[in-house]
From TrEMBL:
Signal peptide: none annotated. PANTHER family: PROTEIN DCG1 (PTHR28047:SF5). Coiled coil: none annotated. GO terms for molecular function: amino-acid racemase activity. This is Hydantoin racemase. Belongs to the HyuE racemase family. It comes from the Bacteria.
């Protein structure tokens, strides 16, 4: 099984964190193929940067999807998720949707800890129809760059935030929302009184399951390939991917 782990942030260190976390939980024989965005923000932290990253995501997936069995979006805003599902012939899973889905199997209400803008995560939860199960969101005073430059300090901040979220809201599971938090649950699990999940580990497991199910690509409905429409200035690979559904 060959899985793309696609990070549209332009920071290779974040991609490396995600790839290492993915390999740590992947089944024997599963190959993890990491990708990093060619253009856009170093770390996505706004809707505008996320919109740019959506283009970068689709372009790199168009270039690399041949031969892959599935795609995990290694970006906590699940950038380009539905668009990728429209265009690609293989299963696509977003890391935050995977973390939320796994959390719903472990508890009745979940909390989220993040570096980023809480409102965007509220929107992601709402898109999945799970607002009623969201206990709360806590943003820490650190950046994704700190997570790979000073992991011990960031681990402590995340553990404190997660524990406070549990105490204040009654969250029964905590989802870490940030690609740079990949692999962190194993380091802080003893410091937090409920299960802690990251979307990369959850996403690999869910994606492997979907690949084994061998689902057919939708031929109708909102996630069917949209077909080619007139375009201009796209990369050859992305133009070809659009043409594949014509």
């Amino acid at each position: 099984m060959r899985l793309l782990v696609a990070n549209p942030n332009t920071t290779p260190q974040v991609t490396e964190l995600c790839a290492n976390a993915a390999r740590a939980v992947a089944s024997p024989g599963t190959q993890i193929l990491p990708l990093t965005g060619r253009f856009g923000a170093q770390i996505i932290n706004s809707r505008a940067e996320n919109a740019i990253a959506g283009h970068a995501m689709l372009e790199m997936l168009a270039e690399k999807v041949a031969g892959a069995d599935g795609v995990l979006l290694a970006v906590s805003y699940d950038t380009g998720l539905l668009a990728a599902r429209e265009l690609l012939p293989v299963p696509v899973v977003g890391m935050t949707e995977a973390g939320i889905a796994a959390a719903c199997l472990l508890g009745t209400r979940f909390g989220m800890v993040t570096f980023g803008t809480p409102v965007i995560y509220q929107e992601l939860v709402a898109q999945q129809g799970l607002t009623g199960r969201l206990a709360g969101i806590r943003a820490i005073t650190a950046s994704p760059k700190d997570a790979y430059a000073d992991p011990a300090t960031v681990d402590a901040k995340v553990a404190d935030a997660a524990s406070a979220l549990v105490a204040e809201t009654g969250a029964e599971v905590v989802v870490l929302c940030g690609a740079a938090m990949a692999g962190m649950p194993a380091r802080i699990r003893d410091a937090v009184p409920v299960p802690v999940l990251d979307g990369i580990a959850a996403g690999v497991g869910l994606l492997e399951m979907l690949v084994r199910l061998k689902p057919a690509k939708a031929r109708t409905g909102s996630l069917a390939h949209p077909g080619q429409r007139p375009t201009q200035g796209l990369s050859p690979a992305l133009a070809a991917l659009l043409a594949a559904g014509a």
